[in-house]
Amino acid sequence: MTINKTTKVQKCISVVITTFNDEETLMPVLLSLFSSGVSTQNIQLIIVDGGSTDNTLQLIKDFLNEHKGSFRETLLEIHHRNQGVSKARNDGIKLAKCEYVLILDSDIILPSNSIKIMVEY
Q1: Is 14 a member of any domain?
Q2: Is residue 42 part of a domain?
Q3: How far apart are CA 111 and CA 10, in angstroms?
Q4: How many domains does the chain have?
Q5: What 3 state SS string does the chain have?
Q6: Contact 46, 16 (CB under 8 A)
Q7: In contact, 77 and 49? CB cutoff 8 Å
Q8: Spatial separation of the C-alpha atoms in residues 53 and 104, rounded to whole Å
Q9: CA triplet 47, 44, 3: central angle to 5 degrees?
Q10: Residue range(s) defining the domain that contains residue 87
Q11: Residue 11 domain flag
């Protein structure tokens, strides 16, 4: 079997986003995934919500419904009470299936091409 060394293998990235009452900041974070420099088909999107009492969950559900099929996989883990960001991150990591895991809080907007640059590095 001959391998073409110029062909780049597309890496799978699990992106774990933790939320808690983040309706004001979450949407730009989610939308920034589309300009991250990698195909969203190579992103497993995992959102862990810490029991939000504002409109955060509805925004997440609307986003996931609107972009159904855009990502390799989407998972929404809901904690019924806030157990802290460490618990949320760890639960998200446990769901990750990809070679790389990127942890984002709900106010981290990715600069253009940022995931591509990280994976290449």
Answers
A1: no
A2: yes
A3: 20
A4: 1
A5: CCCCCCCCCCCCEEEEEEECCCCCCHHHHHHHHHHCCCCHHHEEEEEEECCCCCCHHHHHHHHHHHCCCCCCEEEEEECCCCCCHHHHHHHHHHHCCCCEEEEEECCCCCCCCHHHHHHHC
A6: yes
A7: yes
A8: 20
A9: 165
A10: 19-120
A11: no
In a domain, 6, yes or no: no
Residue 52 corresponds to which tokens in the numbers above?
Answer: 């939000």
Query: Could you read off the pLDDT tens digit of each residue along the chain, which spans 121 residues?
Result: 344 444 344 589 999 999 999 999 999 999 999 999 999 999 999 999 999 999 999 999 999 999 989 999 999 999 999 999 999 999 999 999 999 999 999 999 999 999 999 998 8
Token readout for 2 is 């001959």
Can you read off the two tokens belonging to residue 41? 């088909």
Sign of CA dihedral 114, 118, 120, 121: positive
Beta carbons of 118 and 10 less than 8 angstroms apart = no
What is the pLDDT, as a whole number, of residue 10?
59
Single-letter residue type at 49: D
What token pair was written down for 104? 């984002």
